[in-house]
Write a structure and sequence with these properties.
Two copies of one chain form a homodimer.
Chain A (H helix, E strand, L loop, with lengths): L16 E4 L18 H10 L1 E4 L5 H16 L1 H4 L4 E3 L5 E5 L1 H4 L1 H7 L2 H11 L3 E11 L7 E4 L1 H9 L6 E7 L11 E3 L5 E4 L6 H7 L10 H11 L1 E2 L8 E5 L4 E3 L8 E10 L37
Antiparallel strand pairs in A: 1-9, 2-11, 3-4, 4-5, 5-13, 6-12, 7-11, 7-13, 8-10, 8-12
Chain lengths: 305, 305
């Protein structure tokens, strides 16, 4: 048995557990004056653990983002990088750290409209914990099982508290057929401690996402019974902001419609990563940054080219 | 190269082909006088290749069907039969030939309301080509890729013409989260000849569903561009009727909601099976009957127990 003094311990027992969240969802602080979400939006975010902002970016803005994502995916120099994850075949599934690899995405991650919301919710200056482009292709898009990002970030990256959020920018339409993101409403208020092995050694050598950090069916049923599922659907340019502990996942995509998005994870500067649990080695910089912790300096949007 | 004189040849070439349907969708004949679909329903079926009849059965009727399906799935005698298909683990995915294994389902398959519709559309007396219960569980329900039933029935079972239809009775709610059946509207008017190997011998030994009879992406995109996708959603007791050549499939189901249905395939008595193509051995009786070809005798519904 690993001894831990940890409000959010996970993967240490043969039994799952459902614990109450011990952190705020909406923090008060840094950005109370500046623009961001309006009050009823903030209340919805607080209650549901996510908020959907349809048509946040214009058609021409998002067309530029998609073009740039496709340009990156076609770039042989990018394809070779460790930040690029390919599927069987040669299809690119994700490119990580796009806000450092690409100038447009660097500016987009700093878009004052996004950063203000992140600062408002997290009550603090923020930095980018992780960013990526996800290209879920048509016909062969795979499902992504239910998970809380925070569970993995806490265990594998040593993120101390729930004070981070993700911003997903739709690069293509998300519709009912192409495996849209699904969220369990209100799930962010509970923390599902996942079943796991007990020895540090085991973790060091054989941590596998498919086997660890997977919430059990009974806990998922508990969460769904309370809040239900919602899958925000809308055109390219729409945005979903969701709490780091909101349970989410997606079904497969056999439709011809690709489902692509850009993802920026904002973390409070007071919530920088500590040591991973169980003596795990830190994950690579592009998955969980430990170097670039300076607050994002907001930029006025300018995507004219 | 296999020489075939076949209006619907498939799996004989390295190239896919999109052919026009050569058979009626709605036949005129046997049942013009009797009750069935009303005219605008029939027109929709003709045009789309399927029709959705919400709340066709009452809550209490379908509760009885589901109870019986679960009872069968729990019966050790049933579990051992070749008609029962289990997933990895011990979960039952399908039980075939339920209209011959079970008295309630025998009567249900003969329900005059269903049989009248089948006779009206197929313009003939009908028999049950195949029946089954599908139990798509929550959390781990797998996707089912796009396919035309007729393509397989024609090649593997020697069904001569497009003169059959499926009737899917929802045993649970089908919603946007649990991998509902998706149909490509109007796809029944084209026949996708699938890529395949050329030697009879190859077929005899290694026919695999995953590799053969799979429509190519370009043809699917062609069909979807013309008609779009529709996924009928509704409560248990709802019914979808679809043409044997309507392209359909479903995504995975990571939601906690199981997605179960009963399926009866009605075939015209003039369309009984011939020889499978490529010298294939006939598939088992419970997948494609060759013995029970007598017309279904319609029964007044009585599901009081």
């Amino acid at each position: 048995m690993v001894l831990v003094s940890d409000a959010y311990q996970s993967r240490v027992d043969n039994e799952a557990a459902i614990m109450l969240r011990r952190d705020p969802v909406v923090y008060s602080g840094a950005n109370d004056g500046a623009q961001g979400l309006v009050q009823h939006q903030l209340r919805n975010y607080q209650k549901n653990g996510f908020i959907f902002l349809k048509n946040f970016f214009t058609e021409s803005e998002v067309a530029l983002f998609l073009k740039e994502a496709n340009r990156m995916a076609a770039d042989p120099m990018i394809r070779e990088r460790e930040e690029t994850i390919t599927e069987s075949g040669d299809q690119i599934r994700s490119i990580f750290m796009v806000h450092r690899l690409n100038d447009l995405f660097r500016r987009l991650a700093a878009d004052v409209r996004l950063v203000n919301i992140a600062r408002q919710i997290l009550g603090d200056e923020v930095y980018i914990h992780q960013s990526r482009v996800n290209l879920k292709p048509g016909f062969v898009g795979k499902e992504f099982y239910w998970h809380s990002d925070f569970e993995a970030w806490h265990v594998e990256d040593g993120m101390p508290r729930m004070r981070a959020l993700s911003c997903a920018i739709f690069l293509t339409e998300h519709n009912e057929f192409n495996g849209p993101l699904m969220f369990i409403r209100g799930s962010h208020m509970h923390y599902i401690s996942c079943v796991g092995e007990t020895t540090a050694d085991h973790y060091r050598h054989s941590l596998k996402k498919q086997e660890y950090g997977v919430p059990d069916p009974a806990s998922l049923r508990f969460l769904v019974d309370r809040g239900g599922i919602q899958a925000p659907k809308g055109p390219a340019g729409s945005v979903v902001l969701f709490d780091c502990n909101t349970m989410h996942g997606s079904n497969s995509n056999i439709s011809p419609y690709p489902r692509s998005d850009l993802l920026f994870v904002y973390n409070s500067v007071q919530n920088a990563l500590g040591k991973p649990r169980f003596g795990l080695a830190p994950r690579p910089e592009h998955v969980a940054t430990r170097e670039e912790l300076s607050p994002v300096v907001p930029l006025e949007p300018d995507y004219s080219g």
